[in-house]
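Narrative of accomplishments. A recurring question from our advisory board has been how the design workflow behaves on a single, concrete structure rather than in aggregate. To address it, we present the structure tokens for one chain from the evaluation set, followed by the sequence designed for it. No filtering or post-editing was applied between the two.
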């Protein structure tokens, strides 16, 4: 592993952490959106039956 200055290493760590965090948030958001859509679909089917 090449020798890096502590400052650059910190920035690298922060950037990777930020990337992980943002991707996690996006995944959570997508899951919530799909759940909402599913609920809407279910409600429509229930109304159709009635």
């Amino acid at each position: 592993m090449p020798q890096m200055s502590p400052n650059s290493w910190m920035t690298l760590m922060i950037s990777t952490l930020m990337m992980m965090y943002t991707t996690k948030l996006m995944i959570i958001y997508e899951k919530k959106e799909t759940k909402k859509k599913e609920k809407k679909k279910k409600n429509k089917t229930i109304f159709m039956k009635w």
